[in-house]
């Protein structure tokens, strides 16, 4: 029955995809030209001081624990063992024993595009608005009842929904942080490593939506390319789907709502499969043509640039006077207000990242003083290496960005939601934390062979910490200034394009004759027009960010401040093989079977600290409170003890500070920042993109019967520890189940 309902929409899906693929082919040539030009001309941006991890951390589990899931087929709540591997997919097993025995998972969820709700009322409001005219009358049972006061609901505008609940508010907050981390990571599924396909795709999405008079930010630019394109198709299909299916739904309001969710999910799956096939075919065809196109670009680069500049000069003469008036009247007066609204929460978040990193390293140093030197270092460093991927410890950083509010500016500039800016900043925070940790562990690993006593180790840790913090401050300023410029462009450029469209867009066709036919694949009038509009406001944006830096607002460095790279060999260290803290500096390489056995002992970065939940329970058991446990994020000592060790370590490091002062000196110089209009314009429409993750076979996968791979589920658990009565060092957590985190 669902197949029959979905089939009429396949034709409309093909039509939308055909139009998009035409846009993609056009943008592919432009993106390829920009990439080759950028490769030849190079970039003069400031070099990052922190090292970037070349090989991503794998073979670890972000989180694992028990929660209750609502099973729609039998309308019952069941206990499930949930696992979050390094690719941030949610993997649900029947129970922990099923996971340990390598049994297939019950559900695999790709959380891109989902919202995490912690209230049934919030969920019911979204469900009622998704199908207008269908909502339960007062006094009638809602579509969902939760047996506890602590629900966790994954809601998607098109795909199926997932319902969970836990026993305590503490558990709810912990799982909410984990789920939000999964959503944040999966939303940014377009790889930054792709210098041609990614900008071509995002520019094609923007051009397609603008052709439909849709400007501004888009909340559903979430996931990998197939997921984003499926969302684009569903956005157009949804009104027709409501009008066609809505009147045919029968039964009570709750039954019609459930049927609507199932039908929407079925259509979304159909769209996803059709989209994947058609988009893959288009990209494959572009890849086949790429060698010939690239050869033409490299041969005729000078002529293409000259032709483009000639076209830009003609469009500039026509557009720039109108654009400058629009900028002066409608944009310029508000740039400083937008920037101030962005700067405060963003800078607070990065300051919290710095503080969390400082506290974790200081706690580690204190534990080494108390418990013994090099023997404990390996254990602590393996935990520290995963700090950026610890959802609970990073939550205090991410929460700062949740304060972002644009108030009236959001309506003025047609910004549908601030979520795109929040998530982009949070991704930057996680990356900066990982870069700081990786730089610290690289420098410390280099020092290990020279250290003999515990006191020398502690002094070295403190010196390296101060060294890394200076680098962090410099990189943090660079990253934030770049983020502010991009955010201002994302807000103002769509607004300007919409304002100028009535008087400018219709006249662009006459400029097409200025492009040589041989170069038509690499120069587009529409793109050149947008670059001219960008140039009209770019000067004001750059000036606003520069003034904020000159005033040292929120600890921003001036563009004329350049940190000398006093570590000429540091970046060479980063090119080496990944560090293995599980082996001593002088030890022989660990045998592969032993290494695999040790990896299989990994449970998760953090663990539930409540008791084991029963596999099947009724309402009475669900409502029974569980025994309280110790907060896994709690420091092992009092705040006074932390301050004491900070002061002691600070005094010990005074002698080394003079050496580091020369190394980290800031002097006047030139920034060398050269951002081409093409690269900037492409970037303002590009979503936040962390390193590429493994794609899933469907937009939000349901019950799976196949054997999960390591990339889907992480390593299996093969050993269970016992609770220890002695105090736990920072970064090590235990649950009352007796499962201890290992790395």
From TrEMBL:
Pfam families: Niban2, PH_Niban2. Signal peptide: none annotated. Residues 695-707, 725-743 have a biased composition (Polar residues). PROSITE patterns: PH_DOMAIN (PS50003). Residues 653-743 are annotated as: Disordered. SMART domains: PH. Gene3D superfamilies: Pleckstrin-homology domain (PH domain)/Phosphotyrosine-binding domain (PTB). Residues 60-184 form the PH domain. Belongs to the Niban family. This is NIBL1 protein. The lineage of its organism: Eukaryota, Metazoa, Chordata, Craniata, Vertebrata.
